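Please check this.
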Amino acid sequence: MTTVIRQADLIDSVADALQFISYYHPVDFIQALHQAYEREANPAAKDAMAQILINSRMCATGHRPICQDTGIVTVFVTVGMEVQWEADMSLTDMVNEGVRRAYNHPDNVLRASILEDPDGARKNTGDNTPAVIHYNIVPGNTVDVHVAAKGGGSEAKTKFAMLNPSDSVVDWVLEMVPKMGAGWCPPGMLGIGIGGTAEKAMLLAKEALLEPVDIQELQDRGAANRAEALRLELFDKVNRLGIGAQGLGGLTTVLDIKVKDYPTHAANKAVAIIPNCAATRHAHFTLTGEGPALQTPPSLDDWPEVAWEAGDSVRRVNLDTVTREDVASWQPGDTLLLSGKMLTGRDAAHKKMVDMLASGETLPVDMTGRFIYYVGPVDPVRDEVVGPAGPTTATRMDKFTRTMLEQTGLLGMIGKAERGPAAIEAIRDNESVYLMAVGGAAYLVAQAIKSAKVLGFPELGMEAIYEFEVKDMPVTVAVDSRGESVHQTGPQIWKAKIEEGVLTVS
């Protein structure tokens, strides 16, 4: 039986789904994260999960983005062969029009992160199009759509290998996960694709991330095939690595692991890992010819009431008066509440500044004794001074760090996840400091920002240099002035505790 699908219905459904997933976590993810939070023994990791849970509830209530990185849109469209279209646009153009409307919605503007000419001018398209779209044509008379918004930090940690047929997938995954670091914002999910060709393994891994969190159900009933057996084995062994929430060390690194496979050539074993961060944004809808398929809001009763307490050991820091002597007293793992004025700047701003320094030009901002926050905020709406403004992955700034510390007088940096060896050496040599904010708590962080203004490079949009005035912004000392990194010591400590049997991961 033929079904007629109207152009407007697909556009409206895509736009609605993208708005919906920008501020609603899947309920299964929230429940799994809350269980991990209650089980966690590392106070730093528990604190990070508390911030993610509180942020999620705030976003669900305020209808603002969970993360400042509102993602690159990935869409899987399954079209029945009996469908007819009442449309004057191509299917690809319809999907992209839905993306465009969602990201420019005046009540909840989403950050445009997509750059055309990726190895050249890298110019922002302004509306987060085009999406990455995959099509499948099947028997039937409906259109089935999965929409996801994938953050760049987690996508950047994707791993792929063409293993020999006799190689162990488990061994390869356990080798890769520590190398992924914490830039994908654990705890989250890992999608693993096995087989097919190189691109098919990647596609399987991405598709796997659309499935619900159900590892506990699988543990209860047991594996029915090789893919499920791999899920169980990897879930246990990855969590035994002790990487923990935000890479701080702890009992939960993954909330679930998904495995999809496909027949492959006798000479090959393609394997891909794609992590999904703590934003984990995806939705599903089916068009039947009866109008748009709009998402149903969940009940806020499904969100746990979690309180974040600063604790007695917290240090309050005035960024306007902080000195190198103050910084020298900070220890890895210390919780700080920052108040005062900080600068912002990320990839594009850092490249411009380093290029200007190399050519002897004066920077638009004096950075002497100041802190810079690696962030690209969402545009504000209504009475906001800034939209959600969580940290971006700090390792991308590593190659600029020594120059910035030694030629600008910069005192400290704030971002998410670990720093690499070159950055840690520069921090130690210059007696600087690196502070970590929680990835996945962007709206919560934004509540600490009381004013925001652009001081440099306005043409870079969300990558411009801002000055934020903050009040009690929570951060953790991740690399101290002596070069000790909590992202190195934390996982080592908690892996040892798990191996010794002092603690269990599930």
Summary: The longest strand covers residues 465-479. The chain has three domains: 1-149+301-308, 152-278, 315-490. The first helix runs from residue 7 to 23. The CA atoms of residues 214 and 434 lie 37 Å apart.
